[in-house]
Amino acid sequence: MNRSPNWGQLPALAITNIFQHLNHRDRLNASTLCWHWRSVIFQPRFFDRIQFDVARENNKKNGFFLQKLAHIVREVKISFDSCNLYDVELTTEILYKLCKSARLLSITILPKYASLVTPGRFYSEDEWEYILKLFVQPLKLLLNRKNPPLRVLDLGCSEILALHASDFLNCTSRPQCLEELCFATVKQDPGHYPLGLIEPTLFEKCSTLRVLSLDYDILSDELLHTLQLLPLRQLVVHVHGIDEDHPGVSESAWASFRGKNPQTDLHLSLVCAYEAVDILHTHILRPSMPLSHLKVLFCERINCEALEYLSRNYKDTLRSMVWIDSMRIEEYRNIMELVLRTEQDPLVMMAWRCKKLQEIVIHGYVLDPHNLVGVSRLRGRELRLLEVSRVDLSISSVMMAPFIEEISTQLGQKWCPLDTKTLPPALGFYPVSDEVRDQYILKFIRKDILH
């Protein structure tokens, strides 16, 4: 008499072979067949990465991850509410347990806000000791481990953790294995913050470093000279305030860097940089920068000279231009007003000159639909994203229809301006809360990091 097979008694090797032919979702579903199948799935080949979403309601799930997966995965991300002391301390518990992992190669810390709550306030000695104990020490333990050496350290734009960047580099047992370091920050108070320092020599042994993010405060000719010896593919720089003692970075230093690293993409972001935005084109931008992406976030003004500078100097490198502010009821800052000073629409000139431009995003400013049509005609389907939210309010919706149709035709996709219903809350009418703005900035700006 034929008997149906007892699937629960298949050898582990046979189940493993079955799992290898399934995608991750189907593999998880198949593992629910019974306890035996479930036990077989916990292998490094089936779990390369996990993300801990730290919250009280996720304690059971995170405990399961720590027990079953933390010791076999190569990549871990930890997101947490950095304004909640309970979640902060849960995060540090996970970090310490991860120090025992024998396979971990990549660690990413993802605070949800620019601030990190501690029992103390500001940068007091007690707070400093608290951060050392709960965050810095476990990260240093991971960096100091020789086998396997850590390859990726991403601090998730945390200002207070980035102040320890030199400590992290100093304690790294095998800096030649580091492939990605993310030390750039989003400041809690962009107008007043402590300056971190990193000695350029600390990067000399990072001979396989491909991705580096840091704040403009740290950048200098000397550091750029050191970085040009590394195989960087992506350099991400955040600008907040401009310290009066900062020497800036010279055109000759950028020219030398670009000559040695022709494949490096520079992502430059101004974050709540209320003063730096005015001197962007005179003190920060340099013609030889390998600038591929520019983001200007919540700087409360637009700089048309900088836009013109972009179109004249980055014809062969610029791929993305993003300029975002919250909307203001009391004034409509129209880009046409900027044309009067530059004699021509800077967006149209950018679309004409920059042959690699694929993305234009502008929020918080009223735009002329005629110029948007011009941009779409010049870039056509090569412009993958044209995102705006304010078009000349003197034009009725009926009159806007032909503009929308023409832009859609040129881009090869359905297009229309975003309205107040589809805009993220951070881009709504001013004022916007710091928490809402921080969450938006952190999520948006981290698109630059290519893990």
TrEMBL record:
Record's signal peptide: none
InterPro entries on file: F-box-like_dom_sf, F-box_dom, LRR_dom_sf
GO biological process: positive regulation of protein ubiquitination
Record-annotated F-box domain positions: 4-50
Stated name of the protein: F-box domain-containing protein
